[in-house]
Here is the input.
Amino acid sequence: MPEGDVRVDIAKLHDLGVRALVAAGAREEHARWTADVLLASDLRGVESHGFAHLADFYVARLRNGTLKADPDIRVVQETASAATIDADGGLGFAGGHVGMLAAVDKARSSGVGMAAVRNSGHYGPGFYYAMLALAHDMVGLSLTTGGNIIVPPGGKKRTYGANVIAFAAQTREAPFVLDMSTSVVAGGKFEIARRRGQSVPAGWGLGPEGEPITDPNLYFQGGAILPLGSTPEMGAYKGFGLALMVDVLCGLLSEGGASVELRSGQANHFFAALRIDAFGTKEAFLDRMEEMKRRLRAAPRQEGAPPLSIPGEPEAALEAENRRLGVPLHPTVIEALRGMAAELGIEFGL
Amino acid sequence: MPEGDVRVDIAKLHDLGVRALVAAGAREEHARWTADVLLASDLRGVESHGFAHLADFYVARLRNGTLKADPDIRVVQETASAATIDADGGLGFAGGHVGMLAAVDKARSSGVGMAAVRNSGHYGPGFYYAMLALAHDMVGLSLTTGGNIIVPPGGKKRTYGANVIAFAAQTREAPFVLDMSTSVVAGGKFEIARRRGQSVPAGWGLGPEGEPITDPNLYFQGGAILPLGSTPEMGAYKGFGLALMVDVLCGLLSEGGASVELRSGQANHFFAALRIDAFGTKEAFLDRMEEMKRRLRAAPRQEGAPPLSIPGEPEAALEAENRRLGVPLHPTVIEALRGMAAELGIEFGL
Here is the structure.
C-alpha cells in the first residue's frame, strides 16, 4: 500500500460513488457501472484511474454539462458479429460497458464479436472491459484513444493520443491481463515522480520546447511523452504504429475520428470478444496457458532479478489483499470525496 | 537499393520460385502462394523474408521432409465468424493464405471474421496476409509466432517467440501497414549489422551468458533479443505482454501451443478481417484516415528530423520503384538460386 494511504470499506466507497454520480444527474445504471470501474482500479492498484478523480473529473463534468447526464446511447449500425455504437457524449464508463457487452453478445451468437464506440469519454482503465469477457468463457480485447499527450517519432510537441491496448484471457490461476498505453509510460508515471520529487529516466518524455527531460515538472509545462520504444533506433515507430492501429479501430471504423482530432475528454473505443469454444475447448486452452506460464517461469533469470511476472498476476495479488483489508486511498482523495459529498448535499458515509 | 544488388525481372523470378517449389514437391497452388509472398517481401524491401531463403529454407525443407509437401489443410472447427484451421505441417505460406482467406470469408457474411491456424510454419512477412483484406474493403490483422530468440524481462536466455503483429487498412494514398515484431528489433537487424561489420545499439540484445552486447556476433553465439521496450523501466513488460497476447490468439485458441513450446520452423497464426461497411461507410473511413495523416504530418518536427513516415508509406514507395526497375537481389542470392535450379534439374531462366 502506498505510504500514507488509509484503508476504506469497499461497499461504502462503491455506494458513495453511485450516490454522488446519481446526485450529479447520472442514470443509476451508468452510476453503478462507473463506480464498478473506479473501485476495480483502486483494488488493482491503478490509483490514477480510481476514485481519485471521481470529484474533479466525472462529477464536476456531469454538473457543468461537459458530460451528458442522460445520453441516448444507441447502436447506429450492426451485422451478425459487428456493431457501431454512438455513446452520445455521456460517461465513458457507460459507452465502454455498452460496447463490450455488445461484443460479448455478438460473440455468443456467432463466435466472435466486435464493437466500435464513438462520441464517448474517458472510460478508466482498459483492463476492466477486457475482463468482462472472462465470465463468459471468452477472451476480451479493449482499445481506447487517450489524451493527446504523445509526440510522434521525430516530433517536438504532444500531438496524438495515449492510446491503450488491453487484453484479458483466463488461466487456472490469476487471469492473464495486459493493459498498456502505446507510449513508453502513461501520464500517471510523471504524476507519481512529481509528487515524490523524483526525476524520470531519460527517454520517457520531452519538455515544452521538444527537449529531452528528466525533470517531470517540465512535462506538465506543455511537454510530451514518447511512443513505446522511445527512439526510432529502439522501436519508437512500433509504439507509434500500434497507437495508429488503435486509432483506426476505435475512431476510423466508428467515424468518431482519430485521437489527433479529438478534444480533451473525448474518446472512442473498440472492443472484441472471442468465445474460446468457437475455436477449441476450454480445457485445452487452459492446459496450454499453464504450460506457457510454466515454461516462461522456468527460464533462467539474471542474478538478482525478481521472479518473472505474467501480466495480471501482480494486480490480482494486490486485489486479493485489498479485498481483505479495504481500499487504500490517499488522505487527500478522502478529503476531496468528503468535500464533494458536502457540495452535492449527500451523506458522506465513509 | 542495397549496395551491390542486381535487378532481376519480376515475372521470371516469380516463375522460378513456383517451378522450384513444384519441383521440390509442393502443390502448384501452394507454390504460387509462396512465390507471391517472397516476391512481395523483396519488392517492399524485406529482404530477410524474400527469395534469399527460398533455397535453404523452403525448398530444402520440402525435400528433406521437414515440411510436408502435400499437407491436408482443413478447418477443424468453425462458427459463423470464427474458424480454426490445422495446416498439417506444410508450407506456412499455405496455412497463412487459407487462414486469412477464411477470416475474409467469415467477414463477408457476418461483418467480421477470425481464424486461428495451428501446425503451420514460417509464413514470411505478416504484412502480406493483413494486406489481403484490402481488396475486399476490409481491415486486416495477421499475427504469428516467431522463432524462440527473445528473452523475457529479467531473463538470461532466448526463451519465447519473436511474435509479430501486422495490421493493414486502406487510405486514399499508400495503405497503412504496420508489421512489427514484439521485440526491440527482428533478428534480421542483427544479420545486417554482422554482414556490414557494424556494432548494434546497447539495449537490443544479450550475449550467450545473458550479458548486454553491442557486438552482433555474440547474438549468433546463443544470445537473445530483448522485448520491445528493452528494459523494464522503458516498457519491456509491454513488449513481453504483446508477445504473450499473440501467443494466446495464435497458439492457445488453436490448441497449437504457445511459442515457448514450439520447435524451430513450427508456427501458429491468427487472422482477423473487418468489413469497413459493417461499421460505417468506406468514404467516411477514408476521409477520417486522410485527416489523421494530415494532422500528424503537420505537427512540429525536431530540427533536422526527416518528415514523419506513416507505417507502410516507405515500403509502398520502394515497391513502386522496384516494380518499375526490377527486384533487387544480392549476387549471393542469385547464385544460391542458380545452384538450387541446377540441383532440382530445372531451368534457371533469370
In short: The radius of gyration of chain A is 20 Å. The CA atoms of residues 266 and 316 of chain A lie 30 Å apart. Chain A is about 40% helix and 15% strand. The first strand of chain A starts at residue 6 and ends at 8.
